[in-house]
């Protein structure tokens, strides 16, 4: 919890209404984003994203599994978020559970798309090895190391970076009788890369007073009346949306927010792309 | 005449049903966001796009009949039972009661929400455990509508139980919970009516049933306060272009305005019964 005096609260609100926030940013400016990839050698792909003093890690692990009988031609992706007590003392024990569940749910909403499996984010049909028998299960884990607001956007960016860093081993399937479980040979040398250009970014618009801002710090978040997280892909389509926080919003405000999110997302996607490319280049050098 | 509701493939009988439902004079509680007789907006899909009928032979923009009844549970401060087609939900509200000692002092009231499924709610026997995601969504949908300042230091519990899951479970739970809260006499700015829309191919289907939900390409759910015209909760999945999104949102808002009226009339009925 953030303890703020009345004066500080007024300062934050006044700054936002004058389009000059406490740290000198404008309403629609993000804090500088730093991305490192390949930070966890044990995982198939990983990335660390720092957004001001918000610090998160995402890792992707791939395991061979069986596709669900309902969707034999699709792999599975699961997203979990863990809030470490190193970030906030209240996350200790079961304290972080509620926030973890909320973040996991929001990320699944925003990145995975609808039940039919079609949709944004990750192309699930590319995860199938043998239809109906073997597929890849992707476990995406997010970890909050340090929290200073806007966790969802940071986690979304980290997952995008981790996915583009992920290499899935090439699998050779032994020819076998049709109804038996086929034997597979996992290659140690050949890896397949994901096409992550379709993975959307998440933009959270936090409403403080009459205006809304992107990339709120925890001080600013404590003053919010409501927040809407919108995930937008490269084509400018909305891939998911979830409202967080209490008060109601006028429908016209929501429509306005989607167009702002659309505009902001274009810059954010560009920024992330160049950061991810730079991080990958760094990793290759070392 | 409304082309929107006159699909070539629909049988004559279905057509008759649709028109009946549209007339306010009939006793059916079916409601539709657009009055098919006095339609003003152009259809979003031409007839050539229509390639199936819905399982319960509704038209695409027609909701299931909604039924609400208050006072389902005697021991609760307020309760409500809702039935939308096969989706059956019971919600009871307890409190306001004193918040637990471990809780920090709060000058506004707390809202505690819990959504659970019965083991027999789904075709495959479920665990019947708590549904954490729905619980937090229900909490967010309601907290914007309740005047929490009216019961400081205390907690209101909202327990929802899905007796039978027949699609659009969460919207039914939210609407039913707000009727139960009103029955319990909790102060609210307005009732919360919630409606969802599924996107299948190019078509928008309002109030989807389970079969439609399992094959949907995208979904949009809105919980709103119809009289204040404010959205308290909104979730979107799947890929939406902006015009499509606007269309779906308007559809949901129109439908929830009508649903709000049904909820209100249920409460009025209950109140007049007590007076008699």
The count of strands of chain A amounts to 12
Task: State the helicity of chain B in percent bands.
Answer: 25-40%
**Structure class of chain A:** alpha+beta
Number of strands of chain B: 9
Measured between the Cα atoms of the first and last residue of chain A, the distance is 40 Å
> Which pair of chains forms the biggest interface, and how many residues does each contribute?
A-B, 38 and 37 residues
Helix fraction bin of chain A: 25-40%
Distance between the termini of chain B: 44 Å
For this structure, the quaternary state is heterodimer
Shape of chain A: elongated
| Residue share in β-strands of chain A | 25-35%
Radius of gyration of chain A: 20 Å
Q: Could you give the order of the helices and strands of chain A?
A: HEEEEHEEHEEEEHEEH
Which strand order do you get reading across the main beta sheet of chain B?
1-2-3-5-4
Task: Give the class of chain B from helix and strand content and strand pairing.
Answer: alpha+beta
Question: Can you characterise this structure?
Answer:
The complex is a heterodimer of chains A (286) and B (276). Chain A has 286 residues and is of the alpha+beta class. Helix content of chain A is 29%, strand content 32%. In chain A, strands 1, 2, 3, 4, 5 and 6 form a six-stranded mixed β-sheet that branches. In chain A, helix 2 (97-112) packs across helix 3 (151-165). The model of chain A has no long low-confidence stretch (mean pLDDT 83). By secondary structure, chain B is of the alpha+beta class. Chain B has helices at 12-22, 132-143, 169-183, 210-214, 242-275; strands at 66-70, 78-84, 87-98, 110-117, 154-164, 193-200, 203-206, 218-225, 230-240. In chain B, the strands form two sheets. A five-stranded mixed β-sheet of chain B has the order 1-2-3-5-4. Chain B has a four-stranded antiparallel β-sheet with strand order 7-6-8-9, with helices on both faces. In chain B, strand 1 and strand 2 form a beta hairpin. The longest helix of chain B has 34 residues, at 242-275. The model of chain B is unreliable at 1-27 and 38-50 (pLDDT under 50). Classes of the chains: A alpha+beta (286), B alpha+beta (276). The interface between A and B is large, with 38 and 37 residues. Strand 12 of chain A pairs antiparallel with strand 9 (230-240) of chain B, so a sheet runs across the interface.
């Amino acid at each position: 919890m953030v303890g703020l005096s009345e004066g500080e609260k007024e300062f934050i609100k006044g700054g936002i209404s004058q389009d000059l926030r406490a740290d000198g940013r404008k309403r629609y400016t993000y804090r500088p984003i730093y991305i490192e990839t390949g930070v966890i050698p044990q995982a198939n792909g990983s990335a660390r994203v720092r957004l001001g003093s918000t610090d998160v890690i995402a890792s992707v692990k791939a395991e061979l599994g069986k596709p669900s009988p309902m969707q034999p031609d699709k792999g599975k992706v699961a997203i979990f978020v863990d809030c470490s007590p190193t970030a906030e003392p209240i996350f200790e024990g079961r304290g972080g559970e509620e926030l973890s569940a909320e973040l996991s749910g929001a990320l699944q909403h925003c990145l995975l798309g609808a039940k039919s499996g079609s949709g944004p984010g990750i192309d699930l049909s590319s995860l199938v090895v043998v239809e109906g028998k073997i597929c890849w299960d992707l476990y995406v884990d997010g970890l909050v190391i340090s929290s200073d607001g806007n966790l969802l956007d940071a986690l979304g960016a980290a997952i995008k970076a981790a996915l583009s860093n992920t290499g899935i081993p090439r699998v050779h399937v032994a020819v076998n009788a049709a109804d038996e479980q086929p034997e597979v040979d996992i290659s140690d040398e050949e890896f397949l890369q994901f096409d992550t250009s379709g993975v959307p970014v998440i933009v959270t618009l936090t409403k403080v007073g009459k205006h809304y801002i992107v990339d709120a710090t925890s001080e600013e978040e404590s003053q919010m009346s409501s927040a809407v997280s919108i995930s937008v892909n490269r084509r400018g389509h909305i891939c998911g949306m979830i409202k967080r926080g209490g008060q109601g919003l006028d429908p016209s405000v929501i429509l306005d927010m989607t167009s702002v999110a659309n505009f902001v997302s274009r810059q954010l996607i560009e920024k992330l792309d160049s950061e991810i490319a730079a991080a990958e280049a760094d990793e290759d050098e070392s | 005449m409304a082309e929107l509701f006159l699909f070539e493939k629909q049988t004559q009988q279905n057509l008759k049903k649709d028109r009946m439902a549209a007339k306010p004079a009939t006793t059916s509680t079916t409601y539709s966001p657009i009055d098919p007789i006095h339609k003003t907006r152009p259809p979003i899909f031409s007839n050539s796009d229509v390639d199936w009928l819905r399982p319960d032979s509704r038209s695409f923009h027609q909701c299931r009949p909604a039924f609400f009844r208050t006072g389902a549970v005697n021991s609760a401060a307020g309760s409500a039972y809702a039935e939308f087609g096969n989706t059956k939900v019971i919600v009871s509200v307890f409190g306001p009661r004193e918040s637990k000692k471990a809780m920090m002092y709060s000058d506004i009231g707390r809202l505690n929400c819990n959504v659970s499924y019965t083991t027999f709610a789904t075709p495959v026997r479920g665990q019947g455990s708590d549904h954490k995601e729905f619980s937090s969504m229900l909490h967010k949908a309601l907290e914007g509508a309740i005047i929490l300042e009216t019961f400081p230091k205390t907690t209101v519990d909202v327990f929802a139980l899905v007796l039978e899951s027949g699609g659009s479970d969460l919207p039914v739970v939210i609407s039913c919970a707000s009727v139960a809260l009103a029955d319990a006499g909790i102060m609210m700015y307005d009732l919360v009516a919630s409606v969802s829309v599924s996107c299948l191919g190019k078509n928008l289907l309002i109030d989807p049933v389970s079969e439609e939900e399992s094959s949907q390409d995208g979904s949009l759910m809105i919980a709103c306060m119809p009289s204040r015209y404010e959205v308290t909760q909104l979730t979107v999945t799947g890929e939406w272009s902006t015009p499509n999104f606007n269309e779906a949102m308007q559809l949901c808002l129109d439908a929830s305005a009508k649903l709000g009226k049904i909820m209100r009339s249920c409460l009025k009925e209950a109140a007049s019964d007590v007076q008699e």
